[in-house]
Amino acid sequence: MNKYVLASIRMALVTLVLLGLVYPLAVTGLAQLLMPAQADGSLITRGGVTVGSSLIGQLFTGAKYFHGRPSAAGGDGYDGTASGASNLAPTSKALVDRVKAAVASETAENPGLVPGSVPVDMVTASGSGLDPDITLANAYAQVARVAAARGLTDAAVRTQVDTVAQGRDLGVLGEPRVNVLRLNLALDDLK
Questions:
Q1: How many domains does the chain have?
Q2: Residue 154 structural domain
Q3: Coil, helix or strand for 118?
Q4: How many CA atoms lie within 13 A of 121 on its CB side?
Q5: Do 20 and 71 lie in a common domain?
Q6: Bridge partners of 49?
Q7: Which of the residues 63, 86, 89, 184 could staple to 72 if both were Cys, CB 3.0 to 4.6 A apart?
Q8: 145-153: long-range contacts (C-beta < 8 A, 24 or more apart)?
Q9: Which residues contact 188 (CB under 8 A, 6 or more apart)?
Q10: Nearest-CA neighbor of 56 among 133, 147, 154, 171?
Q11: Among 8-12, 60-64, 82-86, 173-177, which is the least confidently predicted range?
């Protein structure tokens, strides 16, 4: 019996070293070698200061900034340690009330936006609550507000949206989208 116990302990130790040390170090080393920016979290810096990640949404509230999707992550939203959806069903009164309030807020805040034309991603959170991207329809719905707040023409702001926009992945997957942080930084760089 001792022979089997010692063999299982040796096997457990070998497995621990291989899968708990060697494999993670190898994967981390390869990631740092082949794609260092992504391995470090796709961080965006300005003037030596990290301003965010292109992979994690953050809250923008000023009129001169494009706003991301609403967030259900954490108590106040955009909490990276509490990523997740609200888990409210489509028939939930709380969800319906929240969306109605968001539609009213967005139509009041964005000139020319009417209740029947509000993009769905403007008033609903993503599954993670930290989606960094918005649809082109969402971005275009915010152009008039951002342009007025920055003293720019709608055409100039729309050009920035189109410049930062990303197409479908592999040409067919997903929808064209705009990374909110990259768009806001591009607009800040205009002045």
A1: 2
A2: 42-189
A3: coil
A4: 24
A5: no
A6: 46
A7: 86
A8: 145/63, 145/109, 145/110, 145/111, 146/63, 146/64, 146/65, 146/66, 146/187, 148/63, 148/111, 149/62, 149/63, 149/64, 150/64, 150/187, 150/190, 150/191, 152/190
A9: none
A10: 133
A11: 82-86
**The CA-based dihedral angle spanning residues 78, 162, 37, 64, taken in that order and rounded to the nearest 10 degrees:** -40
Q: Which segment, 11-15, 36-40, 93-97, 111-115, is predicted with the most confidence on average?
A: 11-15
What are residue 166's DSSP bridge partners?
177
- Check whether residue 73 and residue 141 sit in a common domain: yes
Instruction: Using the structure block, give the residue that is written with the tokens 């342009």.
Output: 147
Question: What is the sign, positive or negative, of the torsion defined by CA atoms of 14, 19, 22, 23?
Answer: positive
78 has a pLDDT exceeding 90: no
Quick one: pLDDT at residue 17?
Answer: 96
Q: Whole-prediction pTM value?
A: 0.81
